[in-house]
Write a structure and sequence with these properties.
Structural class: mainly beta
CATH topology: Immunoglobulin-like
Order of helices and strands: EEEEEEEEH
Oligomer: single chain
Shape: flat
Length: 143
């Protein structure tokens, strides 16, 4: 099994102790091409080594990370796992997984971006009144 070292960026506040964590990456079928943050690191199965600040524990700190598996067989699909990095002590990042498994036969669902619609209640009330009340004839138009 190949090993690759990926540093986790952290803000430096004085003397920071560094911890090392490992993630085993597996794929079905084996042999998927593995990328970390758009850098090719090898074929699954492979072990990723993450180095980061001790205060983060087993969590990502610094920038976000993307682990991508690219299929080697026809009819299989690209798989991707995303991990958020934390901002030091103020914000904890995602947990560093001990193992990532990619099933290359599964198509990942694309999640549509969520839209937030803000409605001005005054405008809606006026529009509703306009639609519900028939127009009143003016004095000259009455017959």
């Amino acid at each position: 099994m190949k090993k690759i070292l990926i540093p986790i960026l952290v803000p430096l506040w004085g003397c920071v102790q560094v911890e090392t964590h490992y993630t085993e990456v597996l794929s079905e079928p084996p042999g998927a091409r593995i990328e970390v943050d758009q850098d090719y690191i090898g074929e699954a199965p492979i072990k990723i080594t993450w180095e980061g600040a001790a205060f983060a524990g087993r969590r990502f700190s610094g920038k976000d990370h993307v682990v991508r598996a690219i299929p080697v067989e026809k009819g299989h699909f690209v798989q991707e796992k995303r991990f958020a990095g934390g901002q030091g002590l103020a914000e904890a990042g995602d947990m560093i997984p001990r193992r990532i498994f990619f099933d290359m036969r599964l198509a990942q669902e694309r999640v549509a971006p969520q839209l937030q619609i803000v409605v001005d209640p005054i405008k809606v009330e006026i529009e509703e009144r306009t639609r519900l009340e028939p127009p009143q004839p003016k004095g000259d138009e009455r017959q």
